[in-house]
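Following up on my earlier thread - several people asked me to post the actual chain instead of describing it. Fair enough. Here it is, all 376 residues.
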Amino acid sequence: MRNKLLIVALVVLGSALFHGLGLKIGGERILPWHIAYSDMPAFSERALAPGFAYLNKKIEYPVITGLIIDITGKVGRNVPGYFIVNALLLIGFAVASTYLLQRLTEHYPDRSGSQDNVWRYWIFAPSLLMFGVYNWDLVAVFFSICALYAMAKNKDYWAAIWIAIGFSTKFFPALFFLPLLLKQDNWKKIGYLIGIFIAVTLVINSYFILNAFDNWYYFFELNRTRNSNIDSIWTTIRFLFSPYLESVPRVNALSLVTFSGLYGWLMWRFRKADTVKLCFLSVLAFLLTNKVFSPQYLLWLLPFFVIFSVPKIKWFYALEGANIVSTFIVLRWFLIERNVAYFYWSAPLVIIRHIILISVFIYVDRLILPIKKPAD
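Reply from S.P.:
Thanks for posting it. Predicted structure:
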Protein backbone atom coordinates (compact mmCIF):
# COMPACT_ATOMS: atom_id res chain seq x y z
CA MET A 1 0.00 0.00 0.00
CA ARG A 2 2.76 2.46 0.90
CA ASN A 3 4.43 1.98 -2.48
CA LYS A 4 1.15 2.73 -4.27
CA LEU A 5 0.54 5.87 -2.24
CA LEU A 6 4.07 7.10 -2.84
CA ILE A 7 4.05 6.38 -6.58
CA VAL A 8 0.64 7.97 -7.16
CA ALA A 9 1.87 11.09 -5.35
CA LEU A 10 4.89 11.18 -7.67
CA VAL A 11 2.67 10.70 -10.75
CA VAL A 12 0.43 13.64 -9.86
CA LEU A 13 3.52 15.65 -8.90
CA GLY A 14 4.79 14.87 -12.41
CA SER A 15 1.52 16.23 -13.79
CA ALA A 16 2.00 19.40 -11.75
CA LEU A 17 5.60 19.82 -12.94
CA PHE A 18 4.57 19.35 -16.58
CA HIS A 19 1.76 21.90 -16.42
CA GLY A 20 3.87 24.18 -14.25
CA LEU A 21 6.30 24.54 -17.17
CA GLY A 22 3.55 26.51 -18.89
CA LEU A 23 3.47 29.20 -16.18
CA LYS A 24 4.90 32.59 -17.06
CA ILE A 25 8.02 33.03 -14.97
CA GLY A 26 9.62 36.40 -15.65
CA GLY A 27 7.34 36.81 -18.64
CA GLU A 28 8.49 33.57 -20.31
CA ARG A 29 7.16 30.02 -20.46
CA ILE A 30 9.46 27.01 -20.58
CA LEU A 31 6.85 25.04 -22.56
CA PRO A 32 4.36 26.62 -24.99
CA TRP A 33 0.96 27.28 -23.45
CA HIS A 34 -0.84 25.06 -25.97
CA ILE A 35 1.22 22.08 -24.75
CA ALA A 36 1.44 22.67 -20.98
CA TYR A 37 -2.01 24.23 -20.61
CA SER A 38 -3.92 23.81 -17.33
CA ASP A 39 -7.21 25.36 -16.25
CA MET A 40 -5.63 26.49 -12.98
CA PRO A 41 -3.51 29.34 -14.36
CA ALA A 42 -6.42 30.18 -16.66
CA PHE A 43 -8.54 30.86 -13.55
CA SER A 44 -5.80 32.66 -11.64
CA GLU A 45 -7.13 36.16 -12.40
CA ARG A 46 -10.45 35.36 -10.73
CA ALA A 47 -8.80 33.35 -7.96
CA LEU A 48 -6.52 36.24 -7.04
CA ALA A 49 -9.09 39.00 -7.49
CA PRO A 50 -10.55 40.69 -4.37
CA GLY A 51 -13.87 39.44 -3.11
CA PHE A 52 -15.31 36.01 -2.50
CA ALA A 53 -16.40 33.23 -4.84
CA TYR A 54 -20.03 33.51 -5.97
CA LEU A 55 -20.71 36.51 -3.73
CA ASN A 56 -18.47 38.79 -5.81
CA LYS A 57 -17.18 36.52 -8.58
CA LYS A 58 -18.79 34.34 -11.21
CA ILE A 59 -17.16 30.92 -11.43
CA GLU A 60 -18.46 28.35 -13.89
CA TYR A 61 -18.23 25.41 -11.51
CA PRO A 62 -20.35 24.08 -8.65
CA VAL A 63 -19.76 25.55 -5.23
CA ILE A 64 -17.06 23.31 -3.76
CA THR A 65 -14.83 23.65 -6.84
CA GLY A 66 -15.41 27.39 -6.89
CA LEU A 67 -14.48 27.68 -3.22
CA ILE A 68 -11.31 25.66 -3.83
CA ILE A 69 -10.35 28.05 -6.64
CA ASP A 70 -11.01 31.08 -4.46
CA ILE A 71 -9.39 29.80 -1.25
CA THR A 72 -6.24 28.51 -2.98
CA GLY A 73 -5.90 31.91 -4.61
CA LYS A 74 -6.05 33.60 -1.22
CA VAL A 75 -3.56 31.15 0.27
CA GLY A 76 -1.19 31.20 -2.70
CA ARG A 77 -1.32 35.02 -3.10
CA ASN A 78 0.24 34.97 -6.58
CA VAL A 79 0.02 32.78 -9.68
CA PRO A 80 2.90 30.38 -8.83
CA GLY A 81 1.77 30.11 -5.19
CA TYR A 82 -1.84 29.51 -6.22
CA PHE A 83 -0.75 26.81 -8.66
CA ILE A 84 1.48 25.10 -6.08
CA VAL A 85 -1.27 25.06 -3.44
CA ASN A 86 -3.69 23.51 -5.94
CA ALA A 87 -1.10 20.93 -6.99
CA LEU A 88 -0.47 19.89 -3.37
CA LEU A 89 -4.21 19.67 -2.75
CA LEU A 90 -4.75 17.44 -5.79
CA ILE A 91 -1.81 15.21 -4.80
CA GLY A 92 -3.55 14.72 -1.46
CA PHE A 93 -6.83 13.81 -3.12
CA ALA A 94 -5.04 11.38 -5.46
CA VAL A 95 -3.35 9.64 -2.51
CA ALA A 96 -6.63 9.40 -0.58
CA SER A 97 -8.40 8.07 -3.70
CA THR A 98 -5.73 5.40 -4.13
CA TYR A 99 -6.14 4.24 -0.55
CA LEU A 100 -9.91 3.89 -0.96
CA LEU A 101 -9.59 2.19 -4.35
CA GLN A 102 -7.27 -0.38 -2.82
CA ARG A 103 -9.84 -1.04 -0.10
CA LEU A 104 -12.69 -1.12 -2.61
CA THR A 105 -11.10 -3.90 -4.67
CA GLU A 106 -11.33 -6.17 -1.62
CA HIS A 107 -15.11 -6.35 -2.08
CA TYR A 108 -14.87 -7.91 -5.53
CA PRO A 109 -13.62 -11.26 -6.85
CA ASP A 110 -9.91 -11.32 -7.58
CA ARG A 111 -10.45 -11.70 -11.32
CA SER A 112 -12.34 -8.40 -11.47
CA GLY A 113 -10.85 -6.22 -8.78
CA SER A 114 -7.28 -7.40 -8.46
CA GLN A 115 -4.72 -5.25 -6.76
CA ASP A 116 -2.79 -5.06 -10.02
CA ASN A 117 -5.63 -3.02 -11.50
CA VAL A 118 -4.88 -0.17 -9.12
CA TRP A 119 -1.49 0.07 -10.81
CA ARG A 120 -2.70 -0.57 -14.34
CA TYR A 121 -5.85 1.50 -14.60
CA TRP A 122 -5.21 4.18 -11.99
CA ILE A 123 -1.65 4.94 -10.90
CA PHE A 124 -0.09 4.37 -14.34
CA ALA A 125 -3.09 5.55 -16.35
CA PRO A 126 -1.91 8.20 -18.85
CA SER A 127 -4.92 10.33 -17.91
CA LEU A 128 -3.75 10.65 -14.31
CA LEU A 129 -0.36 11.93 -15.42
CA MET A 130 -1.78 14.21 -18.11
CA PHE A 131 -4.91 15.51 -16.39
CA GLY A 132 -4.23 15.10 -12.68
CA VAL A 133 -3.39 18.81 -12.41
CA TYR A 134 -5.28 19.93 -15.51
CA ASN A 135 -8.55 20.74 -13.72
CA TRP A 136 -10.11 19.98 -10.34
CA ASP A 137 -11.79 16.70 -11.37
CA LEU A 138 -9.68 14.64 -8.96
CA VAL A 139 -11.60 16.23 -6.09
CA ALA A 140 -14.94 15.01 -7.45
CA VAL A 141 -13.41 11.64 -8.34
CA PHE A 142 -12.39 11.22 -4.70
CA PHE A 143 -15.94 11.94 -3.52
CA SER A 144 -17.32 9.52 -6.11
CA ILE A 145 -14.96 6.79 -4.84
CA CYS A 146 -16.12 7.56 -1.28
CA ALA A 147 -19.70 7.01 -2.44
CA LEU A 148 -18.84 3.74 -4.20
CA TYR A 149 -16.94 2.52 -1.15
CA ALA A 150 -19.88 3.37 1.11
CA MET A 151 -22.23 1.47 -1.20
CA ALA A 152 -19.92 -1.56 -1.16
CA LYS A 153 -19.92 -1.45 2.65
CA ASN A 154 -23.75 -1.07 2.68
CA LYS A 155 -23.41 2.32 4.38
CA ASP A 156 -26.03 3.89 2.17
CA TYR A 157 -26.65 7.00 4.25
CA TRP A 158 -22.97 7.87 3.94
CA ALA A 159 -23.17 7.15 0.21
CA ALA A 160 -25.95 9.75 -0.09
CA ILE A 161 -23.79 12.28 1.77
CA TRP A 162 -20.78 11.67 -0.48
CA ILE A 163 -22.92 11.85 -3.63
CA ALA A 164 -24.31 15.23 -2.52
CA ILE A 165 -20.81 16.54 -1.78
CA GLY A 166 -19.58 15.23 -5.14
CA PHE A 167 -22.55 16.80 -6.94
CA SER A 168 -21.62 20.14 -5.35
CA THR A 169 -18.08 19.72 -6.72
CA LYS A 170 -18.76 18.46 -10.27
CA PHE A 171 -22.07 17.30 -11.67
CA PHE A 172 -21.34 13.66 -12.49
CA PRO A 173 -21.55 12.01 -8.99
CA ALA A 174 -25.28 12.88 -9.04
CA LEU A 175 -25.63 10.07 -11.57
CA PHE A 176 -25.02 7.61 -8.71
CA PHE A 177 -28.04 8.69 -6.68
CA LEU A 178 -30.76 6.84 -8.58
CA PRO A 179 -28.73 3.58 -8.59
CA LEU A 180 -28.40 4.04 -4.82
CA LEU A 181 -32.17 4.40 -4.49
CA LEU A 182 -32.80 1.35 -6.68
CA LYS A 183 -30.64 -0.68 -4.32
CA GLN A 184 -33.19 -0.19 -1.55
CA ASP A 185 -36.19 -2.41 -0.74
CA ASN A 186 -37.64 -0.08 1.89
CA TRP A 187 -39.61 3.07 1.00
CA LYS A 188 -38.84 4.60 4.38
CA LYS A 189 -35.10 4.31 3.74
CA ILE A 190 -35.55 5.75 0.25
CA GLY A 191 -37.23 8.76 1.85
CA TYR A 192 -34.37 9.16 4.31
CA LEU A 193 -31.79 8.97 1.51
CA ILE A 194 -33.59 11.62 -0.53
CA GLY A 195 -33.81 13.81 2.55
CA ILE A 196 -30.09 13.39 3.29
CA PHE A 197 -29.12 14.22 -0.29
CA ILE A 198 -31.29 17.34 -0.36
CA ALA A 199 -30.18 18.47 3.10
CA VAL A 200 -26.44 18.14 2.39
CA THR A 201 -26.82 19.85 -0.99
CA LEU A 202 -28.71 22.74 0.62
CA VAL A 203 -26.17 23.10 3.43
CA ILE A 204 -23.40 23.52 0.84
CA ASN A 205 -25.31 25.70 -1.64
CA SER A 206 -28.09 27.58 0.15
CA TYR A 207 -26.02 30.54 1.41
CA PHE A 208 -24.95 31.38 -2.13
CA ILE A 209 -28.40 30.70 -3.58
CA LEU A 210 -29.95 33.14 -1.11
CA ASN A 211 -27.27 35.84 -1.29
CA ALA A 212 -26.00 35.73 -4.88
CA PHE A 213 -28.37 33.61 -6.95
CA ASP A 214 -27.23 34.93 -10.35
CA ASN A 215 -23.58 34.16 -9.58
CA TRP A 216 -24.44 30.73 -8.19
CA TYR A 217 -26.66 29.96 -11.21
CA TYR A 218 -23.92 31.02 -13.66
CA PHE A 219 -22.64 27.41 -13.85
CA PHE A 220 -26.03 26.18 -15.05
CA GLU A 221 -26.62 29.16 -17.35
CA LEU A 222 -23.23 28.74 -19.02
CA ASN A 223 -23.85 25.07 -19.69
CA ARG A 224 -27.29 25.84 -21.09
CA THR A 225 -26.04 28.46 -23.55
CA ARG A 226 -22.69 27.03 -24.62
CA ASN A 227 -22.37 24.99 -27.79
CA SER A 228 -20.76 21.57 -28.04
CA ASN A 229 -16.98 21.87 -27.79
CA ILE A 230 -14.73 21.07 -30.74
CA ASP A 231 -13.81 17.59 -29.48
CA SER A 232 -17.39 16.59 -28.69
CA ILE A 233 -19.09 13.90 -30.77
CA TRP A 234 -21.97 16.35 -31.28
CA THR A 235 -19.62 18.79 -33.02
CA THR A 236 -18.37 16.00 -35.25
CA ILE A 237 -21.96 15.08 -36.14
CA ARG A 238 -23.08 18.64 -36.87
CA PHE A 239 -19.99 19.52 -38.93
CA LEU A 240 -19.91 16.33 -40.98
CA PHE A 241 -23.55 15.35 -41.24
CA SER A 242 -26.14 17.82 -40.02
CA PRO A 243 -26.16 21.65 -40.19
CA TYR A 244 -29.51 21.30 -38.38
CA LEU A 245 -27.49 20.96 -35.18
CA GLU A 246 -25.91 24.41 -35.51
CA SER A 247 -28.61 25.65 -33.11
CA VAL A 248 -27.56 25.33 -29.45
CA PRO A 249 -31.14 24.67 -28.23
CA ARG A 250 -31.41 21.79 -30.72
CA VAL A 251 -28.15 20.26 -29.52
CA ASN A 252 -29.32 20.72 -25.92
CA ALA A 253 -32.63 19.04 -26.66
CA LEU A 254 -31.17 16.10 -28.57
CA SER A 255 -28.41 15.57 -26.02
CA LEU A 256 -30.88 15.69 -23.13
CA VAL A 257 -33.39 13.38 -24.80
CA THR A 258 -30.68 10.90 -25.81
CA PHE A 259 -29.16 10.83 -22.32
CA SER A 260 -32.51 10.68 -20.53
CA GLY A 261 -33.70 7.81 -22.70
CA LEU A 262 -30.47 5.84 -22.28
CA TYR A 263 -30.22 6.56 -18.55
CA GLY A 264 -33.86 5.65 -17.95
CA TRP A 265 -33.47 2.41 -19.91
CA LEU A 266 -30.38 1.50 -17.87
CA MET A 267 -32.15 2.17 -14.58
CA TRP A 268 -34.99 -0.14 -15.62
CA ARG A 269 -32.89 -2.87 -17.20
CA PHE A 270 -30.39 -3.09 -14.33
CA ARG A 271 -32.64 -2.12 -11.42
CA LYS A 272 -31.70 -5.37 -9.63
CA ALA A 273 -28.05 -5.46 -10.73
CA ASP A 274 -24.92 -4.59 -8.79
CA THR A 275 -25.17 -0.91 -7.87
CA VAL A 276 -21.57 -0.08 -8.78
CA LYS A 277 -22.05 -1.62 -12.22
CA LEU A 278 -25.09 0.61 -12.71
CA CYS A 279 -23.06 3.65 -11.64
CA PHE A 280 -20.41 2.73 -14.22
CA LEU A 281 -23.00 2.45 -16.99
CA SER A 282 -24.51 5.77 -15.89
CA VAL A 283 -21.21 7.62 -16.30
CA LEU A 284 -20.63 5.96 -19.67
CA ALA A 285 -24.13 6.99 -20.79
CA PHE A 286 -23.41 10.58 -19.79
CA LEU A 287 -20.07 10.70 -21.61
CA LEU A 288 -21.60 9.14 -24.72
CA THR A 289 -24.47 11.63 -24.96
CA ASN A 290 -23.40 14.89 -23.27
CA LYS A 291 -22.78 17.83 -25.61
CA VAL A 292 -19.52 18.72 -23.85
CA PHE A 293 -16.59 16.32 -23.51
CA SER A 294 -13.56 17.73 -21.72
CA PRO A 295 -10.47 15.51 -21.89
CA GLN A 296 -10.12 15.16 -18.12
CA TYR A 297 -13.53 13.45 -18.02
CA LEU A 298 -11.75 10.13 -18.56
CA LEU A 299 -10.58 10.44 -14.95
CA TRP A 300 -14.19 9.75 -13.95
CA LEU A 301 -13.93 6.27 -15.48
CA LEU A 302 -10.62 5.16 -13.98
CA PRO A 303 -12.03 3.87 -10.64
CA PHE A 304 -14.51 1.72 -12.57
CA PHE A 305 -11.75 0.34 -14.77
CA VAL A 306 -9.96 -0.70 -11.58
CA ILE A 307 -13.04 -2.54 -10.32
CA PHE A 308 -14.25 -4.12 -13.55
CA SER A 309 -10.99 -4.85 -15.41
CA VAL A 310 -12.34 -3.32 -18.61
CA PRO A 311 -11.62 -2.66 -21.31
CA LYS A 312 -8.87 -4.93 -22.62
CA ILE A 313 -5.59 -3.20 -22.03
CA LYS A 314 -5.16 -2.37 -25.74
CA TRP A 315 -8.60 -0.73 -25.74
CA PHE A 316 -7.65 1.22 -22.66
CA TYR A 317 -4.48 2.65 -24.18
CA ALA A 318 -6.23 3.34 -27.48
CA LEU A 319 -8.86 5.31 -25.57
CA GLU A 320 -6.23 7.18 -23.58
CA GLY A 321 -4.05 7.85 -26.63
CA ALA A 322 -6.90 9.14 -28.80
CA ASN A 323 -8.05 11.43 -25.98
CA ILE A 324 -4.60 12.90 -25.28
CA VAL A 325 -3.62 13.47 -28.92
CA SER A 326 -7.00 15.07 -29.58
CA THR A 327 -6.42 17.33 -26.58
CA PHE A 328 -3.16 18.72 -27.97
CA ILE A 329 -4.81 19.37 -31.34
CA VAL A 330 -7.78 21.14 -29.74
CA LEU A 331 -5.50 23.27 -27.54
CA ARG A 332 -3.82 24.57 -30.68
CA TRP A 333 -7.27 25.51 -32.00
CA PHE A 334 -8.15 27.33 -28.76
CA LEU A 335 -4.83 29.03 -28.07
CA ILE A 336 -3.09 29.57 -31.42
CA GLU A 337 -5.56 29.91 -34.30
CA ARG A 338 -9.16 28.96 -35.05
CA ASN A 339 -8.23 26.94 -38.11
CA VAL A 340 -10.86 24.43 -39.23
CA ALA A 341 -8.05 22.02 -40.10
CA TYR A 342 -7.66 21.29 -36.39
CA PHE A 343 -11.24 20.04 -36.31
CA TYR A 344 -10.62 17.65 -39.19
CA TRP A 345 -7.46 16.36 -37.50
CA SER A 346 -9.20 15.78 -34.18
CA ALA A 347 -12.52 14.39 -35.53
CA PRO A 348 -11.15 10.87 -36.33
CA LEU A 349 -9.71 10.67 -32.81
CA VAL A 350 -13.03 11.78 -31.30
CA ILE A 351 -14.81 9.05 -33.28
CA ILE A 352 -12.26 6.44 -32.15
CA ARG A 353 -12.70 7.54 -28.54
CA HIS A 354 -16.47 7.26 -28.86
CA ILE A 355 -16.34 3.83 -30.49
CA ILE A 356 -14.18 2.52 -27.64
CA LEU A 357 -16.55 4.01 -25.04
CA ILE A 358 -19.45 2.28 -26.79
CA SER A 359 -17.48 -0.99 -26.75
CA VAL A 360 -16.86 -0.61 -23.02
CA PHE A 361 -20.55 0.16 -22.51
CA ILE A 362 -21.55 -3.04 -24.32
CA TYR A 363 -18.99 -5.05 -22.34
CA VAL A 364 -20.25 -3.77 -18.99
CA ASP A 365 -23.86 -4.22 -20.10
CA ARG A 366 -23.16 -7.94 -20.48
CA LEU A 367 -20.94 -8.33 -17.43
CA ILE A 368 -22.16 -10.21 -14.38
CA LEU A 369 -20.07 -9.16 -11.42
CA PRO A 370 -21.11 -10.28 -7.94
CA ILE A 371 -20.05 -8.06 -5.06
CA LYS A 372 -18.67 -9.60 -1.90
CA LYS A 373 -20.70 -8.99 1.20
CA PRO A 374 -18.83 -6.93 3.79
CA ALA A 375 -17.68 -8.85 6.83
CA ASP A 376 -19.82 -8.52 9.93
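DSSP finds 20 helices and no strands in the chain. That should answer part of your original question.
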